[in-house]
Structure formats: structure tokens, C-alpha cells
UniProtKB/TrEMBL annotation, chain C:
This is 5'-AMP-activated protein kinase subunit gamma. One of its GO terms (molecular function) is ATP binding. The keyword Amino-acid biosynthesis does not apply. GO terms for biological process: autophagy; filamentous growth; peroxisome organization; positive regulation of gluconeogenesis; regulation of invasive growth in response to glucose limitation; regulation of transcription by RNA polymerase II. Coiled coil: none annotated. Belongs to the 5'-AMP-activated protein kinase gamma subunit family. GO terms for cellular component: cytoplasm; nuclear envelope lumen; nucleotide-activated protein kinase complex; plasma membrane. Residues 254-312 form the CBS domain. InterPro entries: AMPK_gamma/SDS23_families, CBS_dom, CBS_dom_sf. Adenine nucleotides-binding subunit gamma of AMP-activated protein kinase (AMPK), an energy sensor protein kinase that plays a key role in regulating cellular energy metabolism. In response to reduction of intracellular ATP levels, AMPK activates energy-producing pathways and inhibits energy-consuming processes: inhibits protein, carbohydrate and lipid biosynthesis, as well as cell growth and proliferation. AMPK acts via direct phosphorylation of metabolic enzymes, and by longer-term effects via phosphorylation of transcription regulators. It is found in: Cytoplasm; Nucleus. The lineage of its organism: Eukaryota, Fungi, Dikarya, Ascomycota, Saccharomycotina. It comes from Babjeviella inositovora NRRL Y-12698. Keywords: ATP-binding, Carbohydrate metabolism, CBS domain, Cytoplasm, Nucleotide-binding, Nucleus, Repeat, Transcription, Transcription regulation.
Length: 32, 194, 312
């Protein structure tokens, strides 16, 4: 899991997922 | 355009600098004042580079960090297995993950069904998400809490025995969003508590 | 020659899947629907994207795409209900559906498609749903939950075709003989038109851009001097100046970022071979057709080009 510092009460987390033979960095932004 | 015998071009008056000159040229000095006061400056495109790092960092004492995490897990209703002696800094978590049951879209392609569409629940989907949380020491007084997705299982142990079909293929089409969502819940709980 | 080239390109597009268009590694930004609309605007701008899939974490499922149309709806709502300013400030992405109902617009039906269906099918879906982008949705094997694998745009597809089909060099029939694009009934405005009227036009004519013509003394038609695009609304909201009724579209365009690449024009003598060549190298959203004096004749959108390549 990758994270960024919380700014403006918003948190972003990410994980790199293999989808078949390709790699997607999925990033979710959510309010604190 | 540098493409042979083409009359494709960029409209010069649409470029921001020339557009600004065009607007200013057609305004009286008073109107120009008004423009200045209206904050009509170009949107800044300098992107404050998002800095990513693994897990979350902590400078607290290791035992304090572990205590915070267990407390946060408890507040969120998670369960965890008793840590073994060799793995004191690892927490194996299970979360009941039972939001509205996913639907079996007859036609997967209706991505955004209107809300009122009746959703028939799907049976036998695993409702327990597993996660592994581990504390790492980066250097003296600098620790990192890592979160790792641990797959799904059923709260009813009977159903776990059925084994997992397509084990190898399991990781190649799994949705990270429930995991990311639970990680945000835990991080928020830790942020708010601390 | 052109027909043969088109046939060969169609075979190529039928032989590929949407998955093939995806880069080996890419990122996908997704917004939790409990985010404030204003915060989500900052996130889009900060990541240099104009759209993102939405994730409803309470239902644990995807809730459509956030696009510039949603921001246009918010501005329209504000102007229909000016006393509701504080609601606009505290509006979350969950609330966008209510905004659509309040101003009486139909919800954006987001068609989607499985990544391993043919690229041809994805294009047909986009053409029929008049969408300019299509989410690629698979299903999580274990939990049966939807996965948004990525979102394909018309631009990405046309760029993929331009890069992979050498036949594009044989598409040499000039536009004037192809009859693709819109040449009648174009809505146009002038620099002094209130930006609110232009935004109303975007919605009422269901278009993503409005050409701006120069003003003439004798009221005759002016030349094309700029274009207001749907995505310009994001800068308007970001700048917090959407509540300025008196703002002209010329003033609103002062908010455009300095690195804006400019409006692409062409003439009726241009061919798809050169247009697709340009798409290879530039982020072109549409081309405005002008004559040699710069008077507006029509517009060719990416949808027009895609529809012609697929269906003739």
C-alpha cells in the first residue's frame, strides 16, 4: 500500500495491481 | 503543421497570451482594472508533485504504534489472530466486509444502473477480507507500518473448505478498492486517534 | 483506395481488444463518492485529468464517471437556485445525481464494456451512447465485485489506430467530399457573450464546445477567434468565479492555463491522412473547419472521425 500525506482533509492511497499482463496503479482519494 | 500539403493549423488568437492581449486591447482602462480585481489569472498548471511512500510512517515507540493499531482495529470492529512469538510485529487481520451485496449484472456492461434498479444479492461471495499489517524499522526512531492485502474468505468456516477456484488466476483480476477503502478507514482512525 | 484502407483498418480494430490499447503500466485515479465536489475538482486538476471513475464505498461498487458535464450541472444548479450557494460549497459527489434531477437533466448513462471484448464493440458503444469515454469493467473473480480496469477515451483509441495502421496514409479524399462533421446549425457566440449563456448552450445543444466569432461593425458574421470548451468550466469553478453573472466568455477564457495548446483548425481540402497524423502527436479534441479568410464553415469531432472509420 502506498500513501500520501493527508492534505486538505483528503487522503490518497494506492496499490499496484497486475491485471492479466499489465500493471495498474490504482489510486483512491477519500475524505478524512 | 509539419505534415505535407495540409492546411491544419492552430488558431493563433486562441493561444492564452494572444487571447489576453486581444481582451485587454478591447477594454477601457477602468474595465482593465475590473479584470485585475476579478482574479482572472491563468489557472496554474504547476502540479505540486504528489509524494508517495510505502505504508505510513511513525516516529513513536514500536509498542505504542502497535497499541494504536490494535485500538484502531478494535474501534473498526476488525478481528485478528493471536500473534505468534516470532511475529510480534505482524498483525493478521480479518474484516467483515459486508456492504450492499454485489449484483450479478445480467449484462455486465450496464456500468451505471440507475439506483432504483432492484439488486438481487449474489450468494456465496466471501465476506471476510484479510489484511496483514506489519511494523518495519527503517532506521533508529523511524518506523513504517505496511498494509498488505491478504485475500478473501467466508465468515462461515464450512464454506472455506470448498477451496479457492482459479487460485493462480485469483490475483490477476481482483478489485483493489475494498482493500484501499479499508486501509483508508484504518489510517483515518489512526490519524484521528493520534 | 480509401475504401480498401478503411476496410483494412476495420479488420484491425475488430481484431484488437480494449485491453490491447492499455499501456503496460498506467495509473487510474478513482474518487470516493463521499468527497466534496470542490475537493474532487482540485484532485482532477492536480492530476491533470478531466474525468475519473467514482467509487461508492458504502455499497462497495462503482458509481459512474465524474466528467466536466457534472461540473456544468453544478453551475447550472447554482444559477437556477442562487440561494443554495452554501449547498454548492458542501456538495459531495454522492449529491451529483440530485443536482441532475433538480435541474432536470437526464443522468449520464455510462455504458461500459469488458476489457477483452473487441475494440470495435467499445467504439460502437461509445458512438451509440454519445460518450467520449468508456470504462473498461471486469469482475473480481472471488467477490463478484466490479473492477474498473481503466477508462478508454475516443482520443486514445484514434491515437492507437493512427499509430498502428499504416493505411491511414491512404485516406486522401478531402473532407469536402467525405461529408463528415457538422456544417449546419452551429451555435456561435462573441467574446462579450456572458459565459453563463455559453454554458447553457453546452447543455442545451449537448455539445462540448462553442465557437467564438469576432464582432463586426455591420453585424455580418465574424471570423473564428476562439472556442469555449466544456473543460474550461473546471477553471471557472476552481477560480471560484462561477458566481459572477456579468463575466463574459472572453474574460472567463483568461483562466485558461498558459500551456493550453490552442484550437485546431483545418479546411475542407484537408484529408483524414493528415488529420490522423496530427492526432498521433497532439491532444486534439476536435477540428474547426474554416475557409481561407478564417470564416467558420463547420466542425469535425473525434466522434465524427471514429464513426466514419468504423461505419463509413
Amino acid at each position: 500500500l502506498a500513501t500520501t500525506s493527508i492534505k486538505h482533509n483528503t487522503l490518497a492511497v494506492a496499490s499496484i495491481v497486475r491485471y492479466k499482463q499489465k500493471y495498474s496503479t490504482q489510486i483512491l482519494y477519500a475524505p478524512l | 503543421s509539419n505534415v505535407a500539403n495540409s492546411t491544419i493549423a492552430i488558431l493563433p488568437s486562441s493561444l492564452p497570451q494572444l487571447h489576453r492581449a486581444y481582451i485587454m486591447e478591447h477594454l477601457t482602462p477602468e474595465q482593465q482594472q475590473v479584470i485585475q480585481s476579478k482574479n482572472l489569472t491563468p489557472l496554474s498548471t504547476k502540479k505540486s508533485k504528489t509524494r508517495w511512500h510505502f505504508g505510513i510512517r511513525s516516529r513513536s515507540y514500536p509498542l505504542d504504534v502497535m497499541g494504536e493499531i490494535y485500538r484502531a482495529l478494535q474501534n473498526l470492529g476488525a478481528e485478528w489472530s493471536k500473534p505468534s512469538e516470532e511475529e510480534l510485529w505482524t498483525i493478521r487481520v480479518r474484516w467483515k466486509y459486508s456492504p450492499a451485496k454485489p449484483t450479478v449484472d445480467a449484462d455486465l456492461d450496464d456500468f451505471h444502473k440507475p439506483e432504483e434498479e432492484e439488486e438481487e444479492p449474489v450468494s456465496n461471495t466471501p465476506d471476510m477480507m484479510k489484511m496483514q499489517i506489519q511494523l518495519f524499522q527503517l532506521e533508529p526512531n523511524n518506523y513504517l507500518v505496511d498494509f498488505k492485502f491478504g485475500g478473501w474468505e467466508f465468515s462461515n468456516p464450512e464454506e472455506n473448505k470448498a477451496g479457492v477456484e482459479g487460485e493462480d488466476d485469483e490475483m490477476s483480476s481482483f478489485s483493489a478498492y475494498p482493500f484501499l477503502h479499508m486501509a483508508t478507514r484504518l489510517i483515518m482512525e489512526l490519524a484521528v486517534n493520534s | 483506395e480509401q475504401q480498401a484502407a478503411l476496410e483494412s483498418m476495420r479488420q484491425f480494430i475488430k481484431s484488437k481488444t480494449s485491453y490491447d490499447v492499455l499501456p503496460v503500466s498506467y495509473r487510474l485515479i478513482v474518487l470516493d463518492t463521499s468527497l466534496l465536489v470542490k475537493k474532487s475538482l482540485n484532485i482532477l486538476l492536480q492530476n491533470n485529468v478531466v474525468s475519473a471513475p467514482l467509487w461508492n464505498s458504502t455499497k462497495s461498487k462503482f458509481a459512474g464517471l465524474l466528467t466536466s458535464t457534472d461540473f456544468i450541472n453544478v453551475i447550472q444548479y447554482y444559477f437556477q437556485f442562487p440561494t443554495k450557494m452554501d449547498l454548492v460549497e458542501s456538495l459531495t459527489l454522492d449529491g451529483l445525481r440530485d443536482i441532475e434531477r433538480a435541474i432536470g437533466v437526464a443522468p449520464m448513462e455510462t455504458a461500459s464494456i469488458h476489457p477483452f471484448k473487441s475494440l470495435y464493440d467499445a467504439c460502437l458503444k461509445m458512438i451509440s451512447s454519445k460518450a467520449r469515454r468508456i470504462p473498461l469493467v471486469d469482475k473480481d473473480l472471488k467477490t463478484q465485485r466490479e473492477i474498473v480496469v481503466s477508462v478508454l477515451t475516443q482520443y486514445r483509441i484514434l491515437k492507437f489506430v493512427s499509430l498502428n495502421c499504416k493505411e491511414i496514409t491512404r485516406l486522401n479524399i478531402p473532407l469536402k467530399e467525405l461529408n463528415i462533421g457538422t456544417y449546419e446549425g452551429l451555435s456561435t457566440v462573441s467574446m462579450s457573450t456572458p459565459v453563463m449563456d455559453v454554458i447553457h448552450l453546452l447543455t442545451s445543444r449537448n455539445v462540448s464546445s462553442v465557437p467564438i466569432l469576432s464582432e463586426t461593425q455591420d453585424g455580418s458574421q465574424g471570423t473564428l477567434i476562439n472556442v469555449y470548451e466544456g473543460i474550461d468550466v473546471l477553471a471557472l469553478i476552481k477560480g471560484g468565479i462561477y458566481n459572477d453573472l456579468s463575466l463574459s466568455v472572453g474574460e472567463a477564457l483568461l483562466k485558461r492555463p498558459e500551456d493550453f495548446e490552442g484550437v485546431f483548425t483545418c479546411t475542407l481540402n484537408d484529408k483524414l491522412s493528415t488529420i490522423l497524423e496530427i492526432i498521433k502527436k497532439n491532444r486534439v479534441h476536435r477540428l474547426f473547419v474554416v475557409d481561407d479568410q478564417g470564416f467558420l464553415k463547420g466542425v469535425v469531432t473525434l466522434s465524427d472521425i471514429l464513426q466514419y472509420i468504423l461505419l463509413g
